[in-house]
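Exercise: predict the fold of this chain.
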Amino acid sequence: MKKNFLATVVSIATLSAGSLFAVGPDTGGSGTQDYSYMLDSGNSISVSRTSSSPKVTGTSTDGTYTNPYKTLTTTSIQAKWDYNGTMIGISQSSPYGVDLNYTTGFMNNTGAKITSSETAILASRGLASGFKVFGGIRLNQFKVTHEKPFLGGAANPTLSKAGGWQYTLDTGTSTGFTIGAAYEVPQIYLRASVQYNTEIQHKNVKVTESLAGATTSTSGIEDYLAPSSTIIKLRSALSPKLLAFLNYRSTQYDGLKVTGPVHTQLGGGNIYDPSSGTDLTFGAAFVISDQLTALVGAARGQTKSDGSNESALSPYGDSSTQFIGGSYKVNDNFELNASYSLTNLGDANADVVVSPGVAGVGAFADNKTSRVTIGTKISF
């Protein structure tokens, strides 16, 4: 097998598989808390940019909801270097995000934006008999803004944001950890790895709510948990120019419930309560030439539903994805890669507002998300 096979295939497989994780408010970038790049040899810096474009529509007694989602673009940076046999790394990403605003019916000006930032400081070390371990510290932050033109039976005839309910949350930065291990057989590029990301508890969270212009600020009203996740990955060469891989991830969103005292008091319930779930991704990479590698595959995402309606901020169910990708090695120190995925979002019923103070059900069907990731890797 050619020397560039492993580096090229691992690079594109990581990029493309990362873009498929689609449970909850995942941005789908290559930096979605998968730190197995620390198991690869050699010094490198990788930068990737992912754009996710959901297309979601639904209907209720209030009419048809045109796509409320905006295109969400995030950037991921991963760097690592060998220091006397120990790999030292740093990663910066935005693992979770939502950006939407309804523009029709009594849901008009119902919007939300979730942004996140995670910096990981990492290390890995090879052990005897093909084993490796890796881990590190994760610094995590979330910000949430949300608006509704109605809360309870409050009057707001113009459906303006200023005349309705508004909410902001800023967790500040808190710390968690990641730990993992792998077994490798280099002769056939076999690697089996497992990684666990701890949940991150944000305390003394500052929340600001306003209703018709009257503002209430409260600190420390709740703990806000960034989800834990487990990632299991398996890959192996099937021939000198073919590598297959299988990735599994389980993410626990149980603690990621966004609430507010005014919202709860007026019968609004949880502001945002995504379901936990799992992803299974499988695919194959093909070496076309010394410079060019291609990749294809599919994925399935499942959520743990309790049978209740979904939130209007995430009106979809289980997902299925198909993807393609490619990597071009310009020279020994520089490569370009890209992937495209199309995700079919499962049909779901979601809680909506059909008139002031009156809840209804929106039926959302035939929805999709397309994602494009481009990246580059510099080795030194």
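Check your answer against the key: The first helix runs from residue 4 to 18.
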